[in-house]
Amino acid sequence: MVGGRLRKTFAIAPGDPLLGGYPVEVREPIRLDVELTNPTHGTYVLTGAIEGSGIEPCRRCLTPVEVEVEDRFRVVYQYPGRDQDEETGDEDLVLIDPGADRIEIDEAVRDRLFVETELYALCSDECRGICPSCGANLNETTCDCEVAVGDARWHALESLRRRTGE
Ligand SMILES: [Zn+2]
Ligand SMILES: [Zn+2]
């Protein structure tokens, strides 16, 4: 099949094993378009596009945030021992067993999903986060404990006050 070209679209549904351990909560299927070509004997080139969205907690305040899941990637599968300089560029190179009758793309897709995902989602750049002391969402409310956190002078004052019984 040298010179061949294969195109396929997949839908990665929520709960698909491929998404196991994925930190983004997927509610709608993620679309995956792949194209596999076989430019020369023993070399297969996979071009893929991932497109979808999911829900992730804001890194600071934990409010659910919708995030884009989007990536384009290229993976070269090659029989071992081939001249690997043939394919230049920074795409991933995966060696395959010449006896294999199929190309496993799951791992490549999983890698891309995990690597390319924004794992530090923020509900907004100005998000104030959660008060580490009382747990109040500081975007919605204010609290009085901010000063106490990590300020040694304040702690000294507190113990002084306790001692004098005020
Ligand atoms: Zn936030
Ligand atoms: Zn607080």
Q: How does this model look, in words?
A:
- It is a single chain.
- Strands 1-2-3-4-5 form a five-stranded mixed β-sheet, covered by helices on one side.
- Helix content is 14%, strand content 32%.
- The chain has 166 residues and is α+β, with helices and mostly antiparallel strands.
- Strand 2 and strand 3 (43-57) form a beta hairpin.
- The longest helix has 12 residues, at 152-163.
- One zinc ion binds at residues 131, 133-134, 136, 143, 145.
Brief summary:
With 166 residues, the protein is of the alpha+beta class. It has two helices and five strands; from the N terminus they run E-E-E-E-E-H-H. Helix content is 14%, strand content 32%.
Tag the structure with descriptive keywords:
single chain, 166 residues, alpha+beta, five-stranded mixed beta sheet, 5 strands, binds zinc ion
Contiguous runs where pLDDT drops below 50 for at least 5 residues? none
Instruction: List all distinct small molecules, including ions and cofactors, that are bound in this structure.
Output: zinc ion
Q: Mean pLDDT, rounded to whole units?
A: 84
Distance between the termini: 87 Å
Any idea what the shape is?
A: elongated
- Number of DSSP-assigned strands: 5
DSSP strand (E) fraction?
Answer: 25-35%
Summarize the biggest pleated sheet: 5 strands, mixed
Number of helices: 2
